[in-house]
Specification:
- This protein is an alpha/beta fold.
- The chain folds into 3 domains: 9-24 and 48-402, TIM Barrel, CATH 3.20.20; 418-515, no CATH class; 570-733, no CATH class.
- The protein is 38% helix and 17% strand.
- The chain is built from 23 helices and 28 strands.
- It has a 9-stranded mixed β-sheet. It has a 6-stranded parallel β-sheet with strand order 6-9-10-11-12-15. A 4-stranded antiparallel β-sheet has the order 7-8-14-13.
- It binds iron/sulfur cluster (SF4) (2 copies).
- One iron/sulfur cluster is lined by residues 550, 555-561, 608, 625-627, 631.
């Protein structure tokens, strides 16, 4: 199984800046795919007291485990990142392949594949690199409204899976180091390359993680979930979100939605999990108790909808008996749960949502006041992270259509529930004023005067706010509220004197938005359940295959394998097209004797390779490659060091640039060869079959050999590996395309 090997922080920093400077792209995401926020649209949100420029982000999963994943999500517009789940068992063997995103979306993935200490450095390093990109200003010109330069983002920890594991000293140490990352920041700071030395002095954020989402095993009992949350709140001090399972729906309702409503007849839910998982009527009182605990701790508590659904494996993609369903059908199931959870826990409970989110339903989810809204399966499809800007673009487009400029006003207007929400929120204010008046004075005349003033003020407030909600384009509800607020009579001022004007109006506005988001759930869920785009018939198409097989060089160059890789492991390099007949040689009695060889053909300059250290064999690029074989298997797998190359036993290469450029290669027959080329003198040495042979690089013929004394009297020199190695070596070092090999010296 391929093991993920994170790159050095210095190399990643250098790569990000140099690649943008030279090619206007970062980690293979071209600048045109960066999210450009529309000027004048405010889609910022708060998540447990922290600000983010929008509610969108990658869910805990393959897009959030390494530095480059997080940077790519950010460039494409993500602003709340659910970091990949960490747990005490951090040396798991994950079955491969582990992702089947062909149409519906299944996986057998699990938690972080890196050791806890390495995950910590990836998360802190990613945060630092984002801060460096923002502070350096290099990207400012690429964003219409420069929102990028001022963007706020949030890293949300994800921890699993049971109380014993979460209380383990290593996991506790990990969480504490995320809350106070000073030591890791200081460890990484000097690794910033000299070229960017000025950025070493940045005042990097060290309290970069304040929230955690709890992921539990299927079947984790309610009292254990509660105990873990208590621990996270009371002992660790993190705002906590409980990730709930779709089994909350109950098996009958789940099957009815999947089979009768959506037509996924082949999906067989794992009924046994429904019996053991947390039940809805256990969840509600548990969450209410935990909300109380959170309040006592001055922290927030929310729920996340939802985990994936365990189903029996009816395909032949994975070898496991069960697999985890995501994508379109899960979206419908989770929307139904959202409906029930809102009904049971009210508008106030913070809900984050992750289930089948894509560019077409993101705005709908945002209208339900869900924060964050995260996505995973959709980003595994062609375009990868580059699909994110459309999510935000579609939301902004919807806002423009409705004539609103802020996300709050969008929530108030989009489902026509805003006036109802305003009535309810202002009704609460009216009630509070009446209550305060009676406690303020026993004098009935003063009370009557006050009641009249308050009623007049509240009436005006409601009128103006409701007008603004249904009113003319770009009529700002918050501004309307603020304008009336200024006119409140002295008696009302006296009662409201505790708060400052801005926070009073903000609170009222936030309450209206909260209630509107709550009311919006009903119509949104009803439409979603009957939307044919989630039905089986619309999610059955397989990615197109064209019947040809991939080889080491050349393919149809569709480049789909690059963005579909969550780790940016596949990349383009430039090779010299060539077609030649080559000879092999036989060493016999002190001289090379020519033998029949073969043809070596490279047709195209544009070639694909795989950076093996970032590839975990998830299989996703194979699914979407139109040719057969899998890019991560058939294309040259390049390792970052002799050590990782030596550790692997399959076909693979290691390139070491230097005064003499060198490449090591292991081929399908298990044989290892090495080629060294001196760029100045042209001297070329090929080590193969125990010989060290000097080659004439113009004619590709041996011109001398050093043999281990007395050991070799007769052997064959196969020249195909030489041609493969020399072509790869030049290609990898060709600076026209920045990659992990030609960019690792700084
Ligand atoms: S390897 Fe496959 S997906 Fe990648 S460019 Fe070639 S044909 Fe396209
Ligand atoms: S290169 Fe392919 S198999 Fe490897 S991590 Fe990327 S998508 Fe998965």
């Amino acid at each position: 199984m391929a093991e993920l090997v994170p790159a050095s922080f210095g190399m990643l920093v250098h790569r990000a800046f140099v690649e943008f400077e030279r090619q206007r792209r970062i980690f293979d995401l071209p600048e045109r795919k960066f999210h450009r926020a529309r000027a004048g649209f405010d889609i910022g949100v708060h998540f447990h007291g922290q600000k983010a420029s929008n509610p969108l982000g990658p869910a805990a999963g393959p897009q959030t485990q390494m530095v480059q994943n997080l940077v790519l999500s950010w460039l494409a517009g993500g602003r709340i990142f659910e970091l990949k789940t960490v747990q005490i068992h951090d040396t798991l063997e994950i079955p491969r392949p582990c992702i089947d995103a062909t149409n519906v979306g299944y996986n057998v993935e699990w938690s972080q594949e890196l050791r806890l200490e390495k995950s910590l450095r990836e998360y802190v390093g990613a945060h630092m690199l984002l801060e460096m990109l923002r502070a350096s200003g290099v990207l400012d010109g690429t964003f219409e409204d420069e929102s990028f330069a001022h963007s706020d983002w949030i890293f949300d920890l994800s921890v699993g899976y049971d109380l014993k594991g979460i209380q383990h000293p290593r996991v506790v140490e990990f969480m504490r180091s995320c809350i106070d990352a000073r030591d890791i920041v200081e460890e990484l700071r000097p690794k910033i390359p000299d070229r960017y030395a000025s950025l070493r002095d940045l005042d990097f954020k060290t309290d970069m993680m304040k929230t955690a989402t709890l992921s539990t095993f299927h079947g984790c009992p309610a009292d254990e979930i509660e105990a873990i949350c208590e621990f996270l709140l009371r002992e660790i001090g993190l705002h906590t979100t409980i990730k709930l399972n779709p089994t909350l729906l109950g098996v009958e309702r789940c099957e009815q939605l999947l089979h009768d409503d959506l037509g996924y007849d082949e999906i067989r839910v794992a009924r046994e999990h429904f019996a053991h998982d947390l039940k809805f009527d256990e969840m509600v009182p548990m969450v209410k108790r935990l909300q109380e605990t959170a309040r006592e701790c001055g922290l927030g508590l929310g729920v996340k909808l939802t985990n994936t659904l365990v189903v029996h494996n009816h395909r032949d993609f994975f070898s496991e008996e069960v697999m985890y369903l995501s994508g379109a059908p899960l979206h419908v199931l989770t929307m139904s749960i959202l409906h029930d959870v809102r009904a049971a826990l009210g508008a106030e409970i913070p809900i984050s949502f992750s289930a089948g989110i894509d560019a077409h339903n993101f705005a709908r989810a945002a209208s339900c006041n869900l924060v964050p809204i995260t996505t995973c399966t959709d980003l595994l499809r062609p375009g990868g992270y580059g699909r994110l800007p459309l999510y935000l673009g579609n939301l902004e487009g919807e806002m423009e259509r409705l004539g609103v400029r802020s996300l709050g006003d969008f929530i108030l207007r989009v489902e026509k529930q805003g006036e109802r929400a305003a009535r309810a929120a202002i009704g609460e204010l009216r009630h509070a004023l009446r209550r305060s008046a009676s406690s303020l004075t026993a004098d009935p005349t003063r009370r009557e005067t006050f009641a009249g003033d308050a009623e007049e003020f509240v009436g005006a407030l409601e009128r103006r706010v409701r007008e603004a909600i249904r009113g003319s384009p770009y009529h700002d509800v918050r501004a309307a509220l603020g304008a009336v607020w200024k006119t409140r009579p002295a008696s009302v001022r006296a009662i409201l004197r505790n708060g400052n004007e801005r926070s009073d109006t903000e609170q009222l506005y936030a309450r209206m938005v909260e209630l509107a988001g709550h009311y919006n759930v009903e119509p949104v869920v009803a439409r979603t359940t009957h939307d044919p785009r989630y039905a089986a018939a619309r999610n059955a198409r397989l990615p197109r295959k064209i019947g040809s097989r991939l080889t080491l060089y050349d393919c149809i160059n569709c480049d789909k394998c690059i963005p579909v890789c969550p780790n940016d492991a596949n990349f383009v390099y430039h090779a010299a097209p060539q077609e030649l007949e080559y000879a092999n040689y036989r060493w016999e009695e002190g001289a090379f004797v020519e033998e029949p060889g073969g043809r070596f053909v490279v047709e195209k300059e544009h070639q694909i390779a795989n950076y093996a250290d970032f590839c975990n064999d998830c299989g996703n690029c194979d699914v979407f490659c139109p040719e057969d074989g899998g890019p991560f298997i058939e294309k040259p797998r390049i390792f970052s060091s002799l050590e990782t190359w030596g550790h692997d036993r399959g076909v693979g290469f290691y390139v070491r640039p230097g005064r003499k450029n060198s490449i090591w290669g292991r081929f399908a027959d298990g044989a290892e060869h090495m080629l060294q080329m001196d760029p100045e003198s042209g001297q070329t040495v090929f080590r193969s079959a125990g010989m060290e042979v000097e080659i004439d690089p113009a004619r590709h013929r041996p011109i001398g050999a050093r043999l281990p004394q007395g050991e070799i009297t007769s052997t064959r020199l196969d020249m195909r590996p030489y041609h493969v190695l020399r072509t790869l070596l030049r290609g990898m070092l060709d600076a026209r395309s920045t990659n992990y090999i030609n960019n690792n010296r700084f």
